[in-house]
Design a protein that fits this description.
single chain, alpha/beta, Rossmann fold, 2 domains, about 30% helix, about 25% strand, elongated
Length: about 300
């Protein structure tokens, strides 16, 4: 898969393009992208995804403090698994914000990319003030394929709903409409050494401050193929502190400091809580580790 950051005329020949922002690459996004790939294969054409960086809401309404489900690199990695030929990353800035829907379509879809088909979700809206929709796309002569809402367990897959579920601790249902583990990517930094003193060494990772962290608690997951227990919280047993992401890798010894690691969270084990003493905390950590060993496949 090729990443294109500066699209230009004749770079692609009549591609089929999935158009959206795709933060989270949830089940609805996946269906839009898979449809574009399928259409492109039928036509013998390239398939491409257009996404934006930064997220449009970070430019339009920075005061809202939007938290991302995926960093750009995480989004690109998830899109890659869907078989797309190219990902086109458009810089979302004041210039792009000021374009009308007609101007955006003409500049990018018609003149630069010469698209053959565009695939969008049922609720796609764009242009200045998001005033335009699917009807505007259809004015330009290329075919427009509209993908209906994707529901799982009666819930429509939408990025806003995923944020809500992650933030309130409903991790299971968040993953149900995401359709994949929730990934945290960060650089391992120096901690305060409490983990190793407890007998359970941890790696503290520092994620992009724009990234949405799930509700505080203890999670199970993987770093590569290694099982891990992840604590997201302020460690109240030792007194309230700053929010941290601490990872204990099972069956691992080594120094990860300075390295960037990807953690795929697959299950929420419990809330974070304050224990009466350190021995009670250590006993609970042993239970958490045993649960991860038992319930996660290698």
């Amino acid at each position: 898969m090729r990443i294109i950051r500066h699209p230009r005329k004749n770079l692609l020949h009549a591609p089929v393009v999935a158009l959206g922002n795709f933060d989270g690459v949830h089940l609805g996004h996946q269906q839009v992208i898979k449809t574009a790939v399928k259409e492109a294969k039928k036509l013998g054409a390239d398939s491409a995804v257009i996404t934006f960086d930064p997220h449009p809401q970070e430019v339009i309404a920075p005061e809202r403090g939007l938290r991302l489900l995926t960093t750009l690199q995480e989004r690109e990695a998830l899109i890659k698994t869907l078989g797309v030929s190219e990902v086109i990353v458009l810089k979302f800035d004041q210039h792009l914000l000021g374009l009308s829907a007609h101007e955006f379509n003409e500049k990018y879809l018609v003149n630069q990319l010469g698209v053959r088909e565009v695939v969008v979700g049922y609720d796609y809206a764009f242009g200045r003030g998001r005033r335009a929709g699917i009807a505007e796309l259809k004015k330009f002569g290329f075919k427009v394929v509209v993908v209906p809402a994707v529901k799982k367990s009666g819930v429509i897959a939408k990025s806003g709903k995923v944020r809500e579920l992650l933030s309130t601790g409903d991790f299971k249902n968040a993953l149900t409409i995401l359709g994949h583990p929730y990934r945290l990517t960060g650089r391992v930094g120096r901690g305060d050494g409490r983990g190793i003193n407890l007998g359970f060494p941890t790696a503290n990772i520092y994620v992009d401050p724009r990234k949405l962290l799930p509700a505080e608690g203890v999670y199970a997951g993987f770093v590569g193929k290694k099982k891990c227990v992840v604590n997201i919280g302020s460690r109240p047993t030792f007194g309230a502190g700053k929010l941290q992401v601490e990872i204990h890798l099972l069956n691992f010894s080594g120094d990860l400091r300075g390295k960037t690691i990807r953690v795929d969270l697959t299950r929420r084990l419990r809330h974070e809580k304050q224990f009466a003493d350190v021995e009670a905390l250590k006993a609970q950590i042993r239970k958490d580790i045993a649960r991860v060993r038992r319930r996660l496949s290698e």
